[in-house]
Structures are given as structure tokens and as C-alpha cells.
Amino acid sequence: LYAQENKQEPAILIADEVFITGDRTLVAKGNVEAFQDGARLRATSIQYNQDDGSLSIEGPITLTEGDKTLIFADAAQLDADMRNGILTGARLILNQQLQIAAVQIDRVGGRYNQLSKASVTSCRVCEDGRAPLWQIRAKRVIHDKLEKQLYFDEAQFRILNVPVFYLPRL
């Protein structure tokens, strides 16, 4: 896997099974791990289309970027350098504290993560589905990695899942 635009180092791919199909698609299945420029991707399977440089990834997916950002997702469509694309059924964890769960994450230029229908909290999220002590729900959350900022559209602050405060922009 090569990222042509930025002349990055080639990615390292490890999997139980790796093969190329008749239409020049590289397929990696079983305990798949890919490493590139400090990012580590773990998934059930990855398909790399050599013609357009796209990755189709089946989860559960774990994408680690340095020690600050961790993304979990069910599935993804990304470009070869994992800087642009879409992750579905995703959860973003920042600095091992703030959790953002979203229906979808759109990655743009390696700088922005746009999260749709998101819920943000630093509280421990219970496995049994109970609401956290506090959360901010928003139609859209933009995470700017360069500026280290979060921007909220149509934000609603909730305590024990009861709406308390609404802000169109935050």
C-alpha cells in the first residue's frame, strides 16, 4: 500500500491470509494490522483497490493515531493513507478521556474528523445502555486535530439523558 501524493513510506500489512484477486484487489483477512506514519489499523479484513487506491475495511476496526486519538468503527471506506474517507458505527476517544460516539465519521485531509449524529461525554459509558451522567448531543461535531478544537452544530447538553440546554453552535 503506497500513499502517492505525500511521498509517505509504504504501509506495513500483516494478516493471516493475503492474496490478490483477478481484478487487482489486494485482500487481507484475519487478524489484519496495517501500520503507516504512526497510525495503526486493526480489522477483520481489508481490501485495497490498486486502481483507485481505496481501502474497504470490515470491522471491528481499531485505528490508533499516536497516543492521543483512538477510533473504533464497524466498517470503513478510506483512501490508501487513511486520511480521507468514511467510518460507520464509530467511536472516537481523545486523550483517553473524551468519548464521541457517532453514526458516521468523515475524515478530511487528515486534519478534520466530522462526526454525524454524535454524543460526547467524558463519563464512563455503561455497557447496559444506561445514559452517562452528562453528555452533549449534536447533529454534527467537527474535530480539528491541528487546532485541537471541537465544534458542535445544534448541540444539546443533557444530564441523565434529560435535555437541559440547547446551543445552535458551540
What class, by secondary structure content?
mainly beta
- What is the overall shape? elongated
Low-confidence stretches: 1-6
Count every beta strand, where a strand is a DSSP E run of 2 or more residues: 12
Alpha plus pi helix count: 0
Helix content: under 10%
**Distance between termini?**
39 Å
The biggest beta sheet is recorded as: 12 strands, antiparallel
Q: What does this protein structure show overall?
A:
The chain is mostly beta strands. It contains no helices and twelve strands. Strands 1, 2, 3, 4, 5, 6, 7, 8, 9, 10, 11 and 12 form a twelve-stranded antiparallel sheet that branches. Strand 6 (69-79) and strand 7 form a beta hairpin. It is elongated. It starts with 11 loop residues before the first strand and ends with a strand. Mean pLDDT is 88; it is low at 1-6.
